[in-house]
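User: My collaborator sent over this chain with a note saying "see what the structure looks like." That's all I know about it. Can you take a look?
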Amino acid sequence: MKLIKFDTLYPALYLDKKIKNSLPEIKKMNFREFNSWLIALRMNFSDFYTFNLRQHSWDTEEIFLLSNRYYIRKCGFHYYGYFFYFLMFVYKLKNLIFSKKSILLERLIEKIIKIEKPDVIFIREQSGINSLFWDKFRDKMLVVSRMECGVPKYWSPACFDVVYTNIKTYKDFFESNRIITKNNFSGFDRRILDEINSKNKIYEVVFIGGLGSPTFTEKTDFFESLLVVSNCNFDFKWWGYKEGSNFDNLYPELSKRYMGFIGGLEMFEIYAQSKIVINDYGVAAGGQGMNQRIYEVLGVGTFLLTRASLMFNEWKDSICTFSDVDDCTSKIQYYLTHEEEREKIAKAGQAFVLENYSYFKLIGKLSEELIEAYNKKNGK
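Assistant: Without extra context I'll predict from the sequence alone. Here is the result:
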């Protein structure tokens, strides 16, 4: 069977920086070469789904929903030839004349689907495309969406045959509306261990992720309070995207320790070279706390200190949790000075993730579910 996965890469500013730094090389690449270059960055979910589906006998294509002009042009030329440049001119002209904007990316996606003829379309990240756009392919294909973060503005679960999520509150709501919904946890790809330098623990306490947005207000307040309560008696650094024009005034301690954007293999290396990585989760998780960061940190063999959740009951000695700022502060101080105990927990966490949450294993289950859903839809 054949599957096309549509996905995004973020943070956009980090990706733009990587492309800018390699622009002379990228300009010489064709679409396939550029797509492989992007996959090799290991940003977000990279090819963790499509690569492992191929290990389970699928034919797969990885397409990124990027507004980056180099990607759009290379992808467009690959599927349209020189006619794509004429389309770019036409769409630019239409958008200058008419108030209702025409989206060239949607036209390109339609062409990709027409040529590739997939059995399954898997939209892991929505990228602002109206879900009604995907709904029109359901008469011939199984159309699947994955929903993990905040629900996009123009998105409805009713436009998909199956919705995957790792958030229980979403699953309960979708199922109450008679939408076929499946659990799909994040995981870790073993290939990362061969691609990073993880020899030395050069960072004490690290966080990587977004702070400052309305969705992350509680999380941002927590990190700022942590630095104030602890009197900053440990070396704390954080990377990611900070949002809000007044961020520096509202969160002065966090601003002092902000290191900029990071992603992909560089992010994995920072995790691997850290003594402690702190994790917290947004309100959308409904108190479950199972975000992608958990699997990334434990997968590279680093000690994770995360907010307590009932979801961690099965993890036992593989993870360490905190309940509030004071508890988090005391555990940071304890585990920074008890290296042997800290690293024992970190190794147990890595073993647990590699055993239970390797992408090869997770995607094997996904493969079976997709085949079952496809056959049921087509009366087989």
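A starting point for your reply to your collaborator: The mean pLDDT is 92.
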